Amino acid sequence: MILHLALFTWRDDVTPDDVADLTRQLEEMAEGIPALRRYDCGENLRLRPSDADYAVAAVVDDADGLTAYLDSEAHKAVYDRILGRMIQHRQAAQLDLGAAG
């Protein structure tokens, strides 16, 4: 299994309403993507120092599942509708969770 992490720092004009709308759209998107085994997203709690404002954690079975998720029309639509205009900076990483996850 693979854990895909994406961390976002927002542009200065992003509002709390934008973030709430994004979260709703991402959660709805995730429900329709069969490749996703688990999906969590939300605002950074800032319990430790970080520049990230928001994080997404997606678990898939393999590299093909990751491609199916990231290249899906639903994912692209959320990016085009709202996420793309919010991003100042993005970082991503993938971790091997092994067979058990």
Word description of this protein:
About 40% of the residues lie in helices and about 35% in strands. The radius of gyration is 13 Å and the shape is globular. α1 runs antiparallel to α3. It starts with a strand and ends in a 5-residue tail after the last strand. It has a single domain, classed as 2-Layer Sandwich (Alpha-Beta Plaits). It has about 100 residues and is of the alpha+beta class. About 15% of the residues are buried. Strands 2-3-1-4 form a 4-stranded antiparallel beta sheet. The chain is built from 3 helices and 4 strands; from the N terminus they run βαββααβ.
What distinguishing features does this structure have?
38% helix, globular, single chain, 101 residues, Alpha-Beta Plaits
At a glance:
This protein is of the alpha+beta class and 101 residues long.
How is the main sheet built? Answer: 4 strands, antiparallel
Distance between the termini: 6 Å
Annotation field: number of helices: 3
Give the strand tally.
Answer: 4
How many domains make up the coordinates?
A: 1
Q: What strand line-up does the widest sheet have?
A: 2-3-1-4
The CATH class assignment is Alpha Beta
Q: Looking at CATH, which topology would you report?
A: Alpha-Beta Plaits
Strand content: 25-35%
Fraction in helix: 25-40%
Order of helices and strands: EHEEHHE
Structural class: alpha+beta
CATH architectural arrangement: 2-Layer Sandwich
Low-confidence stretches: none
Overall outline: globular
Radius of gyration: 13 Å
